[in-house]
Amino acid sequence: MPHIKVYIHFVWSTKCREPFLDTPELRNKMWNHIKKNAKEKGIHVDFINGYKDHCHCLVSLGSNQTLSKIMGLIKGESSHWINECVFQKPLFQWQEEYYAVSVSQSMLNKVREYIKNQETHHSHKSFDEEENELIEKYGFVKYSGV
Where's the Transposase IS200-like domain (predicted)? Predict the structure, then answer.
């Protein structure tokens, strides 16, 4: 059995950055649902949180998992779930693009803390500002197709 320790920090937004996830209660429902559903699909979500218009998710990759496969499963199913169970109007969608960056073992706690503090972080910084910071500071690369 392979021993793999590869962590990826994913960030993705709602379609057109609409603030669909506008209450802490709704966000908690979404994050809990994503974590539960991911576990059922063999995806290890280490930490998840976000804000009104985006999600941060720290995932430990399995040996047969790819970035696009994980994002397809997480984003597709969670969009379907929220539209079926929470009755979002207009239709809830995630944006196709996402960011993904590997995280070293030594930085895991720092990334977890960053993800944990999204509410505070976004009380004074927009997602656009955060996106530019992630690109400049960490060299995040935007992927699309999911």
Answer: 3-118
